[in-house]
Amino acid sequence: MEARINLLAGATSTKLAKRFAGAAMIFETSALPRELRELVQLRVSQINGCAACVDMHTKEAVAAGESEHRLNMVAVWREATVFTEPERAALALAEEGTRLADAFEGVSDETWATVRKHFDEDQAGTLICLIAFINAANRMNIIARVPGGDYQAGMAAKFLE
């Protein structure tokens, strides 16, 4: 499969892509653990069917020390015993925040209460931004039909050098 378009070939799209990637680096300085961020981004990317992002976040999670077993269980996290309560809260928020059109109420009060039980104001806000951000990245990659499979851990950070 070949991408429909190279977003780094046009003057404006290159500037936007680099700024978008630069904004993503802010998550690295957040209080959310890298492993949790990768699990959330992986789950959103699975839901949206973004091969490039599934590839990226699986490999970045492994580089961060995440086990392959837990990564294999992300798609079925509700039935899995390998995730902590805070991880489960973040994954529930990720799913509900991604599947907005599937639920009349969007993110349920129950999910939000569980998120607030485990995450402070800054962390909860960061989770919201992370979920919105990865949904946007998924959409760009899906529209451009960017294939997955060739990503190597650390490539995204090198893009900004």
From TrEMBL:
| One Pfam family in the UniProt entry | CMD
User: What domain of life?
Assistant: Bacteria
Q: What does the record list as coiled-coil region(s)?
A: none
Stored Gene3D superfamilies:
AhpD-like
Domain (Carboxymuconolactone decarboxylase-like): residue spans on this chain: 18-96
Q: Which InterPro entries match?
A: AhpD-like, AhpD_core, CMD-like
- NCBIfam families referenced in this protein's UniProt entry, alphabetically: ahpD_dom (TIGR00778)
Q: What is this protein called?
A: Carboxymuconolactone decarboxylase family protein
Source species: Kribbella lupini
